[in-house]
Design a protein that fits this description.
Elements (H helix, E strand, L loop, with lengths): L1 E5 L2 E3 L5 E8 L7 E7 L6 E6 L6 E3 L7 E6 L4 E6 L8 E9 L2 E4 L3 E5 L2
Parallel strand pairs: 2-11
Antiparallel strand pairs: 1-3, 3-8, 4-5, 4-9, 5-6, 7-8, 9-10, 9-11
């Protein structure tokens, strides 16, 4: 079982990035998927959640309207489209898959928003 995030990097304020989280060893179509982030010196926080069918989403207030979570069950992948990025969005972004007692995390991908 593995979750592998990709797509992070350095971007200027106002820019966009799309993060991907590829699942292997299980079907993401049976899991609620979410993105978390952890900035240096801060606690990990939830950013966005998408339910098992991929119909319902929820966002942290700080990213609502700028970030979009989606999932492609055929590719076993979940995405986080991030727009209008700001320096305060700088963090390591983690993917999480949950279904009942099963709870998996990825290793994280760094997003840095800076000039």
């Amino acid at each position: 079982v593995q979750l592998v995030e990709s797509g992070g990097g350095l971007v200027q304020p106002g820019g966009s990035l799309r993060l991907s989280c590829a699942a292997s060893g299980f079907s993401s179509s049976s899991y609620a998927m979410s993105w978390y982030r952890q900035a240096l010196g801060k606690e990990r926080e939830v950013v966005a959640i998408i339910d098992i069918p991929g119909l319902l989403t929820n966002y942290a207030e700080s990213v609502d309207g700028r970030f979009t979570i989606s999932k492609n069950n055929a590719k076993n992948t979940v995405y986080l489209q991030m727009t209008s990025l700001q320096p305060e969005d700088t963090a390591v972004y983690y993917c999480r898959a949950r279904s009942g007692p099963r709870d998996y995390w990825g290793q994280g991908t760094q997003v840095t928003v800076s000039t």
